[in-house]
Amino acid sequence: MILKIKMFGELSLKCGEKIIVDSGSRSNKVWLLLAYMFFYRKREITQNELIRLLWGNNEEIENPSNALKTMFHRARKLLDRFGNGIGSDIIVRQRGSNRFNNKIQCSVDCEEFEKLYNEGKASVTESEKLACYKSAIEVYGINGDFLPKQNNEFWVISLSSYYHNMYVQIVKEMIDILKKNKNPEKIVEICSNAIKIEPYEESLYYDYMEALIKVGKSKRAAKIYNNMSCMFFEEFGIFPSEDIRALYREATSTINMCEMNISEVIEQIKESDKVNGAYFCDYDFFKILYRSQARALERNGDVINVCLLSVVGINDSELTRRSLNTCMANLDELIHVSLRRGDVVSKCSVSQYIIMLPHANYEDSCLVMERINKKFKRKFPHSPANLQYSIQPMKPVC
Description:
Layout: E1 2-6, E2 12-15, E3 18-21, H1 28-39, H2 47-55, H3 64-79, H4 86-90, E4 91-94, E5 97-100, E6 105-108, H5 109-122, H6 126-140, H7 154-180, H8 184-197, H9 202-214, H10 218-236, H11 242-253, H12 262-269, E7 279-280, H13 283-300, E8 304-313, H14 321-338, E9 344-349, E10 352-358, H15 362-379, E11 385-393
Parallel strand pairs: 1-6, 7-9
Antiparallel strand pairs: 1-2, 2-3, 4-5, 8-10, 8-11, 9-10
Helix pairs in contact: 1-3, 5-6, 6-7, 7-8, 8-9, 9-10, 9-11, 10-11, 14-15
């Protein structure tokens, strides 16, 4: 009998043609017990260790020893799905404690992954290293890190980070070799999976976009950038680095390589006629518009005011991230209906909007901000947030 244990992504056991999968139901403690027993199967595990694992210091468990016996009974019953009595073959009673039967041949994906990683590190040639690393990332898969359903358990957290960092290191080393060998197609394949597992590593997006541009998929590279940019801003309130923004500009500059007449160009860039409210754009584009308008001010003598609208906690209290996100979403909707079509708005931090008000003097700009403030208080009277604003006139570039 060979027992195949899968711990990356969905925890599952396979014996012959039969597979048992952690369904995340009422049996979650049973699966936690099995995962721990299988991972640490090569050492003695005491009864007290398992009691702490399953119940911690919960004093409501009157008889933890009996509770543990019940849990082992349920675990063996679960394993009996492979065949009557197999549960007692896999988990044996020895010297007064339960342990994994090491006479049973088994394979564990996380052990195989680490073995392939070490073989790749020790490889002499790049082809051998790539072969080991390729097999390793196939073992890791794309469905999740180490035991994701148990990722709040103290022993899982460190191991999940350990294997996750190992995976990222493998991917980066593979990309370096593939760059040297000029193989962007393979980089595209690797990065498309890697960003699902590590969605916050900017260097992976850079390598992904660079490879996409090289294989003639600039439109896809631009889409990857837009998705990444939105995610980074929503999660951390930061913008991509200048290096990756430069790569984005390169991608967008090559999307339309064929010649077009002016009518076709206008058709592409024009906005729908049926639009209301302010024009919302990302912060990078807002900066471009600001600089363009500042250059024109000296010539046309126009008046433009710039307003910074901030969401703050009442009495300077700190808003939770959930409350802040809700307030910003509510404010987004309110700004849309409160400003003119010619006004320009951008989210410039996780708690602030920057607003450009053309043809509005300082007094008019204050009235606009006060109107938004009053509407916000009237529409969301129980909001934990207040709005604050400051206004400055745009200075012409001389």
